Amino acid sequence: MNLTKKNGNGNGARAGLGLSLDPLRNWWAGAPGWQRWAVYVLLIVAAVFLPSEAIGSFMAPSGASWPSMLSDQIAIYVLLALGLNVVVGMAGLLDLGYVAFYAVGGYTIAIFAVRYHWSFWEALVLAILFSALAGVILGAPTLRLRGDYLAIVTLGFGEIVKRTANNSSFVNGPRGVQGIPHPPTLSEFEVLGVQPLKYGLLDTRPYYYLLLVFIIIAIIFVRRLDASRVGRAWASIREDEDAAELMGVPTFKFKLAAFAIGAAIGGSGGVVFAAKQTSILPANFEFIVSALVLAAVVLGGSGNIPGAILGAFVVAWLPERFRFLDEYRMLIFGGALVLMMIFRPEGLWPSRRRKAELAEGGGGMGTMGAEIAGPGQSEAAEVSK
Amino acid sequence: MLLEIEDIHVHYGKIAALKGITVSVDEGEIVSLIGANGAGKTTTLKTISGLRNLSAGAIRFDGRDISRLAGHKRVTAGIGQAPEGRGIFPGMTVEENLLMGAYARKESAAKELAEAYELFPRLAERKSQAGGTMSGGEQQMLAIGRALMAAPKVLLLDEPSMGLAPMLVQQIFSIIEEINRRGTTVLLVEQNAQQALQIAHRAYVLETGRVVKAAPAAELLDDPQVRAAYLGGELGDDVAAAADVTSQESVEAPSEGSADATEEGTSS
């Protein structure tokens, strides 16, 4: 990647880590269409060859299976981060219970495929609808709250979903649901030793490719939304919700939409997870998943799609890569997160707008507290005069 | 009457912030609400623009009861507001901020954009600068320009002079007069009563959630009680306090928060 080392923090208010992405951004902003498409194609080709052994020998040297690391951890986290990025990064709503939607997706396929023998694809559609609905059900009464209050309510929602599953005999309580079918095999054709459309027990690469398709669809969908009127409305809500309402933005409606879209993406991740594992337990949907996905979004650069992907990759991959450190790895991982937030609070790969918002002190995660303006809201302003 | 506020009551939880405010604004007027911290000026504006719910009373605009209308729909009805503390979108450029002002409009806003740049040449110079990096005065201009983008019938201004140097205050107030001359009705909330009364046609004096006086602005300028309480009179504290704040803009952030706090606290 074209990362040049220079002291590139324009606002001067905070010490940056000294990694500026500005040259890359400037090139990208001015790049003609064919160059952009070339980059997209290259990225997709790279993603397709990612599970190969040559890459795996570096990424997962300690004997762990690199393809299953990709399908079980990394790709799932990337998909979840893309969904949560809509809620946290774009609309600025702090959601600490995102795992709930992942669980709704997983349990939808578990119930409908096992009890009612729906196929994977039918259950997928239903699960996406159900998770979006769950987003609306959670959002409708709670989105009047702001900042930390909203965070607490969503945290509670995550727990409620998990506990309901844990205590409901309909889904076997803590024993979970077994015997969830794999997706039906679409074709048995073979390329370079992989049967990418044959979903079985042994090879996890087809699941990775399935998730890759989901990820690409999610990126296109979210990207187009972000560039539209909807994206502008989200940006205004994130930056100043009251002002957004005064501009004529139906803030409540757009916040609800962000919740529903984020939830739908999370739900689709839950479906693939359940179909791959063939069994799910309430214990799969602990708070730590919400926390890690949120860490991925914030670490990567909340609001920026490539940033969220990078963040998810790092969060999902690092602890696995350093598994040989045993119990110290989580300590080191936590320390790394803390250091990141000190030296590069805007994330690894933030958007430009995001940096400007952060320099203003609001943090862009909604206005914390109801009526009190963010600290230093205008102290930076007069200095630049 | 273009805008009629009839005996509105607003509560923050159990605390009454407004205890029956009645204000009317006729087309083409500049009407000012003056009063100390906690008098309920900002709450009144927020209630008119729909950011606060009223617990009793009614707001009529253009002959239509808008008391229960959602805030974003009041914008299309013709109410524009430059909020307290300016409410600039810090990550958006000046132009993006202005265009947000026209968010609810179906038709093109090119004419309004040109007009905003003409009223505030400073904004035209800084088109592509991030809103958050502008000075306080520029942000105030941007907030007013942005509110005008929706071509409102009435413009609500919340403390446009807050935290600005005296020179800038003069400039902002003459622009407000100009906006009014071009046909926009203005409802102005100010602590800087001296300035506000000089440009307003009529004014209301608010104290702890009630209107205590309503009169033509010129009369209030000469009213001994008002002079003593709000125009500094012999005490001269209003002007001195204003100068204090403007000389050191960085003081503003904390004082803004505490002003908010006292506004809610003392209105009980």
UniProtKB/TrEMBL annotation, chain A:
CDD domains from the UniProt entry: TM_PBP1_LivM_like (cd06581)
Keyword match Protein transport: no
GO cellular component, one term: plasma membrane
Keywords of this entry: Cell membrane, Membrane, Transmembrane, Transmembrane helix
Short name of one Pfam family: BPD_transp_2
Entry's localization field: Cell membrane
Membrane topology value: Multi-pass membrane protein
Region (Disordered): 360-385
Protein's UniProt keywords contain Ligase: no
Molecular functions per Gene Ontology: branched-chain amino acid transmembrane transporter activity
Sequence intervals crossing the membrane: 37-62, 74-93, 99-116, 123-143, 206-222, 256-275, 287-316, 328-345
InterPro entries with a match to the protein in the record: ABC_transp_permease, LivM-like
PANTHER family documented for this protein: HIGH-AFFINITY BRANCHED-CHAIN AMINO ACID TRANSPORT PROTEIN BRAE, HIGH-AFFINITY BRANCHED-CHAIN AMINO ACID TRANSPORT SYSTEM PERMEASE
Protein name: Branched-chain amino acid ABC transporter permease
UniProtKB/TrEMBL annotation, chain B:
Domain ABC transporter: 3-233
SMART domains hit by this protein: AAA (SM00382)
Chain segments annotated as transmembrane: none
Disordered: region residues: 242-268
Keywords: Amino-acid transport, ATP-binding, Nucleotide-binding, Transport
GO terms for MF: ATP binding; ATP hydrolysis activity; branched-chain amino acid transmembrane transporter activity
Any one GO biological process: L-amino acid transport
Family per record: Belongs to the ABC transporter superfamily.
Name of the protein described by the UniProt record: ABC transporter ATP-binding protein
